[in-house]
Amino acid sequence: MENIQAGNFLNFRNVLNRQHVKPKNQFQHMRNPTLSFALLLFAGSLSLQAQPAAPSLSTRQSVTPIEAVASAKTINRIYPESLYQKAMDAITADKSLADRRIACLVDFSKPSHEKRLWIVDLQTGECLLNTWVSHGKGTGRSAVAQVFSNTSGSECSSLGRFVPKEVFDGKHGLSLRLSGLDKGVNDFAEQRGIIFHAAEYVNEYNAKVYKRQGNSQGCFAVPQQDIKKVIDLLKGNAAFIMAGA
Q1: Edge-to-edge, what's the strand order for the sheet holding 239-244?
Q2: What DSSP string runs through 82-139?
Q3: Domain boundaries, the chain
Q4: CA 199, CA 12: separation in Å to the nearest integer?
Q5: Terminus of the chain with fewer CB atoms < 10 Å: N or C?
Q6: Distance linking the first and last C-alpha atoms of the chain
Q7: Backbone dihedral angles phi then psi of residue 143, each to the nearest 5 degrees
Q8: Within a 10 A sphere around the Cβ of 150, how many other Cβ atoms?
Q9: For residues 16 and 238, what is the distance between their CA atoms, to the nearest angstrom?
């Protein structure tokens, strides 16, 4: 009886030992994938930390109109380089123009049947409008501009820099008054009534058939379909006009 009991006790102890070992082995088996997954996560975090950080928006530098004009030289432009350079020089030299981002460039060295007026965004280099513009009767009755004047009654066009004044509705319809900035060159523009206005004698048909446009009395006359866009782009304090030859 004592032997049977001793044998039973040994068997019972062996069972307990086997049950105790089994959970321990199961725990060790489960611990390996968990540890591997944790190591993978840690390695991934190190990889992300090693990536260079993107520049923050606060590090972007603002661009002045003058700097934008210079950077816009990389853009393929259809307007004359010489007038473009004069516009850049103008806003560099004259503080009153420094904040103006729109330039209306007029190249009177080109014949009137060519589109010789460009309105340009100086910050992007984009041409916003390209169209025909007349010159005054006193400047030349043909397609070629020859004489320029600042004198009242001359009916000549003037060269130089202008700034827009008020928009009004006059005998030519919607119009934009101009003020000349260059003494002795165009500073009598207001007294002479030099304005932007529409004219039926400036159009595509005249350009193609007659190889010229009609003449104004010294004003910047543009096609009727373009006058609203011209004035919308130039009115206010964001634009100036540069006329060259």
Answers
A1: 127-131, 117-121, 102-107, 239-244, 160-170, 173-180, 195-198, 220-222
A2: HHHHHHHHHHHH-GGGTT--EEEEEETTS-TTS--EEEEETTT--EEEEE----BGGG
A3: 1-57, 65-244
A4: 116
A5: N
A6: 132
A7: -75, -15
A8: 22
A9: 93
Superfamily of domain 65-244: L,D-transpeptidase catalytic domain-like (2.40.440.10)
pLDDT at 234 over 50: yes
**Which pair of structure tokens corresponds to residue 243?**
């006329």
Which of 244, 230, 213, 225 is CA-nearest to residue 134? 213
The amino acid present at 115, given as its one-letter code, is: K
> Considering the chain, what is the average pLDDT of its residues?
79
E strand or H helix that includes residue 11: helix 2-50
Amino acid identity, position 114? E
Instruction: Tell me the C-alpha to C-alpha distance, in Å, between residue 51 and each of 46, 59, 237.
Output: 9, 19, 46
- pLDDT tens digits, one per residue of 160-202: 999 999 999 999 999 999 999 999 999 999 999 999 999 999 9
Please write the tens of the pLDDT for every residue from 60-96. Answer: 334 344 344 444 444 456 788 888 888 888 888 888 8
